[in-house]
Design a protein that fits this description.
Length: 329
Amino acid sequence: MTAPWRILSLPPVGREVVRGMFEPLGDAAEVTFPERRDRAALLAALPSADIVIADFSRGFVLDAEAVAAARRLAFVQMPAVGVDRLDLAALTAADVPVANAAGFNARGVAEWVLGAAFALCRNLAWGDRGVRAGGWPQAELAVRNPREVHTQRVGIVGFGSIGAETARLFAALGCAVSYWTRRRRPEAAATYRELDDLIATSDILVLALPLTDETRGMIGPERLALLPPNALLINVARGGIAPDDAVLGALDSGSLAGAALDVYDREPLPPGHPLRSQENVLLSPHAAGSTVQSQQNLIAAVRDNVTAAVQGRDVRNIVNGVKPQVIRR
């Protein structure tokens, strides 16, 4: 009898959720978890794992040391889109395919971007704070440059599933939508522009691309200075692409009229961080994709991909170029 595949599931995905995903596999798979939430427990659990469901939070990192400890590792599934918590070079060198859950929260994040655009354009959070404090800032709101979203030129940096869905929603409102990505998309319902041109012609600049060595610091002070007057920034990508200090500098200089941020250089955002006191910044705790529908999509994506690996079928959404058929070690 063939031994069951050992699936090591890392936090923060709940244990009961994971057990429920793979119960239909019966004796073909055994789900395990680290004994504790520390580095030593991770390194102790990895040597017997065939498949790892990775940690998308700031907890367990699959770095080169961890990959070396995972001698039987045949597949890594990230229950998220971003894979910056993984050492992709080490995993690729070990011939381990890595998959993400691309597209699972595209609609949820795109709707958050749209909601953030409305909030910034109409100063909704600022007005709410004023009324709650006992004021009636009707006249003050009228001089804070309120604008209708459909009149804004929208530029999207990154055009994966989130960027494409964001473009579609803004276009439906009547916005002029442009985008930049490393590979031009002929099918895109938006106009391609080179990055600096895109920034210089965007009243609302949306960041929706992964954090890599190439994109870290990509939208720094020099590029933020290219924005047109009264521009707005919405970041649902990763902290570090537009560093917090650069965003603060652009707000102070007037290059930015406002920003909506779901991600930061450090998460959680430290107490007393100057972004917390910016009245024209909408802050969110990295939760743009946290909808009921997105979570259902995520569970289905992880379940289906890991099940395919166990049953000898090709997995989907490989991000490191390794062949999609998972070979047991």
